[in-house]
Amino acid sequence: xxxxxxxxxxxxxxxxxxxxxxxxxxxxxxxxxxxxxxxxxxxxxxxxxxxxxxxxxxxxxxxxxxxxxxxxxxxxxxxxxxxxxxxxxxxxxxxxxxxxxxxxxxxxxxxxxxxxxxxxxxxxxxxxxxxxxxxxxxxxxxxxxxxxxxxxxxxxxxxxxxxxxxxxxxxxxxxxxxxxxxxxxxxxxxxxxxxxxxxxxxxxxxxxxxxxxxxxxxxxxxxxxxxxxxxxxxxxxxxxxxxxxxxxxxxxxxxxxxxxxxxxxxxxxxxxxxxxxxxxxxxxxxxxxxxxxxxxxxxxxxxxxxxxxxxxxx
Amino acid sequence: xxxxxxxxxxxxxxxxxxxxxxxxxxxxxxxxxxxxxxxxxxxxxxxxxxxxxxxxxxxxxxxxxxxxxxxxxxxxxxxxxxxxxxxxxxxxxxxxxxxxxxxxxxxxxxxxxxxxxxxxxxxxxxxxxxxxxxxxxxxxxxxxxxxxxxxxxxxxxxxxxxxxxxxxxxxxxxxxxxxxxxxxxxxxxxxxxxxxxxxxxxxxxxxxxxxxxxxxxxxxxxxxxxxxxxxxxxxxxxxxxxxxxxxxxxxxxxxxxxxxxxxxxxxxxxxxxxxxxxxxxxxxxxxxxxxxxxxxxxxxxxxxxxxxxxxxxxxxxxxxxxxxxxxxxxxxxxxxxxxxxxxxxxxxxxxxxxxxxxxxxxxxxxxxxxxxxxxxxxxxxxxxxxxxxx
Lengths: 314, 390
Hints:
The structure holds 2 protein chains of 2 kinds. Chain A is α+β, with helices and mostly antiparallel strands.
């Protein structure tokens, strides 16, 4: 994975930004500066190029994987050379300046190609590890909260992705979960730490469809406020970055999972039910935030399938 | 069923939508007999509350008859007549246990949305945007009532709907506005806004022992109601300088507590200043216009209390924090913790201390809700409060 302390890449990103802003804001001036006649057509193309530069800047500076954006810059350089050559023929005002501009573009093209190839050579990691942490305060005693969690078969009542957990041995259990793109993944897990009233830690046992581990800590909240619950989960997204991107496109936010799960846990422990509204009938889920139903009663009974875990009556 | 749906800025329609269904074991379904349009519904109507979606069923002031109960609700029976409080509250989290029902920690399934704008999430509210939970509202024939074992209050007397309906929101809201003022013998309370909530704040300030209540508005018919039905002293801010008038009325002390019952879409008597806030709001540089709040802060006596019950949605600017700090003012605020006030206020109604139906100016069939919104928004036909009958 590339990091932001890559000086050449960062320079190219800022270069795009520095070029794009005047092209968009004052295209006429930039035209004159590079010796191209300042008319409506020139300004149109100059703005277009400026927008492209801003997109490249955002991609290079803002994305974790800037390599594709550097290749986009290379394509842009080719486009610019073509446009300048065309301008030399049809819209020449100061030929020397145009030729000078073409020289500059050619120079930066070399830098773009070198950087794009260099980044492309860096090894791709096969899988992406996602860590997800969150904390809530639950108005129940630590023993009670621990006890509910310790019965792992309760987990699907508030962990939205889980279909089921079956305890198969002293420290062993079998988990199955929904995964993006409508499939089910399964694994065996073992409890690696169990301190009554304080902490439970687990991890998947190889071979697992999705390698994962998690821990939950319980500590008394000050005053009569109940228990502070801290959940820390880590898992490997199959398919690496691509898998993670697909998951995000589908509205999954893997790093939000602990948050969703813990807030649902709090609701189950305190209110006895998971809050469901007409717009969010399956209860709190980062995924649903992006695609709200209208707040009117749903046409079909909802909450039946995955939603019935918490004992809802429908 | 028929339901009043938000269909965009300045647009509501009564549409056919599916009947509500039980979703949880603490739910009830209520057949609505009376519902009302709230001033805060106008903020939705005017498009100032974010996260609305076309088709959202509006309405958070409603009452009716229980027609269906999930097995977890033991405190109610089918056939009970109930008034439903607007905040949806579980009754068991730390907030609820401490009486802070409108910031229930377990009732907003879209909490993450509210956190983006508000820092932390308040409780869910019926028909009041997706960031407040995305719950279908009660300007409809039926509504689903979550946590029905905690919220709804049973009405066992034969008081008419109009007398108890406003326990759902505006009477407790106005009452809380006065309650926050910590009224002591001799206190003078100033109330900005003589809409329904302001009127209940005035009435409640007297119930809680205020010596004098000064009401501020610009609509003569509303000021008349405050003066003639509630015995408030009234100031028309388009006719007098409010600061000067308050100083005069309190011999230079300023009101002991000031209640802002106006909220985010206030109006300013000086056109340029109104335009300043209006333009900034339209450009989204501030989301809320807060002139009365600024005026309340500047007018309040040293060491006094500012009670904010008018609805705000986001951000304001030109906030006179220097006055608050240097003059030892206390600001108290909140969406009303209705569940806390239901029983004592029903008691006051049954004792004959107040008949909340005095605010009602219009009765309309549910199907005429769009006309009700327009009338209420533009203060047509001396509109104070519209009650809808499904």
